Amino acid sequence: LGQEHNGGSLRHRAHVAGIAGIRKSGIRQREDHPAMGDGVAVEHVSRDRHGDAGIAFAYFLDFDAPGGASAFARQQMLRNAPGECIGFGLRSTGHATSVAAGEAGAKFRGGGTMAYETILFEVPNGAARLTLNRPDRLNSFTVQMHGEVAEALTQVEQDDRVRALLITGAGRGFCAGQDLADRAVAPGGDGVDLGESLENRYNPLIRRLVNLPKPVVCAVNGVAAGAGANIAFAADIVFAAKSAKFIQSFANIGLVPDSGGTWVLPRLVGQARAMGLALTGQPITAEQAESWGLIWRAVDDAKLTEEANALVEQFARGPTKGYAAIKRAIRASWSASLDQQLNHERDNQRELGRSADYRDGVAAFSEKRKPNFTGR
Q: pLDDT, tens digit, for every residue of 210-269?
């Protein structure tokens, strides 16, 4: 199958080759993808034939297309049903960007890695691992990173086989918050609307982490400053290397703590310590953060990855529905009366008592074996 689409000047050409082994399903749809401008047509097979389709390459001959080939690949991953999609791995051919499919899709279905530029994302054995990957900038956020994190979280949310999430950082830092060199937040002559950045990027991120119906573990491998610290605090369980530091650095540039900072800090450490952290911008160590109740555990640097991985893998084998209910119940308790919380517990137990995981958990206890939780 070859397809050329003339967008006036033949700016782009998509050549999808080597379709084989397609019996009943055939070609499902054709798409003009906005990430590649108005000149690309892509034809592909229906989901149930992805495993048999030997799609070789799609060549995009215009590097300046809006969003580029990587945007096409990332969005295409999400257009298909989770776990049944074609995954793309990007590589340069010297004159074009090549998007390899078929094999890459099979690899992703089994827990492979999807191509991103500012994060690393993989899903081995049901435990998703999201690594902020701008180590030269201490993994500070840009608009692009927000977009890629959002896409990865969509995969975690939509794929029932993904049952836990680990977030960490590459290099010597976890996250330095916002990259102030990013044009979206760099002050101009009339200032900048930072509220737009919070409304459209940071606030949705915090809400998604808090409300994710699967356990979220954060491994803070280095400095966590500004929004980076508060993103960590949005996780359900936070490990931190003993060399790590947490800094509410907003006051140092004339701002208020955001990304949930003014809400979570007084609830975790009380008003006096919250005020001190926010007003002085002084860093605290991981061990101090543990003693104050800001994080779950401070661990030796060499053991951080091992301990965080072990816990997220434990969660990936656990009773996912029960974990989701625990998250909801504990977070709801902060704004509920005792009577409301008792009713909430009753409703949760009523629902979970009918779950397959509860039945197997009780049977495993009686039979003196490990439970085989399925997340249902």
A: 999 999 999 999 999 999 999 999 999 999 999 999 999 999 999 999 999 999 999 999
Residue keyed to tokens 């009523």: 350
Q: What are phi and psi of 344, to 5 degrees?
A: -65, -40
Per-residue pLDDT reduced to its tens digit, 317-340: 999 999 999 999 999 999 999 999
Q: Is 363 helix (H, G, I), strand (E, B) or coil?
A: helix
Q: What's the CA gap between 323 and 328, in Å, rounded?
A: 9
Distance set, CA 325 to CA 88, 211, 329, 341 (Å) = 35, 11, 6, 13
Which helix (H) or strand (E) is 305 found in, with range? Answer: helix 304-316
Residue 284's contacts (CB-CB under 8 Å, 6 or more residues apart) are 245, 246, 247, 277, 292, 294
DSSP state letters, 308-341: HHHHHHHHHTS-HHHHHHHHHHHHHGGG--HHHH
Six-digit token pair at 91? 């590589």
Q: Are 96 and 59 in contact (CB under 8 A)?
A: yes
**Chain centroid to CA 238:** 16
Query: Closest by alpha carbon to 374, among 325, 330, 323, 326?
Result: 323
- Helical residues (DSSP H) of 68-202, grouped into ranges: 68-79, 103-109, 143-158, 194-197
Separation of first and last alpha carbons in the chain: 42
| DSSP code of residue 200 | I
How far, in Å, CA of 225 to CA of 245, rounded? 8
Q: Tally Cβ neighbours within 10 Å of residue 261.
A: 23
**The two three-digit tokens of residue 340, written as one number:** 């409301």
pTM: 0.72
Q: Burial of 367 by CB count in 10 Å (0-12 exposed, 13-18 middle, 19+ buried)?
A: exposed
Residues near 5 by beta carbon (within 8 Å), at least 6 away in sequence: 12, 13, 14, 32, 39, 40, 41
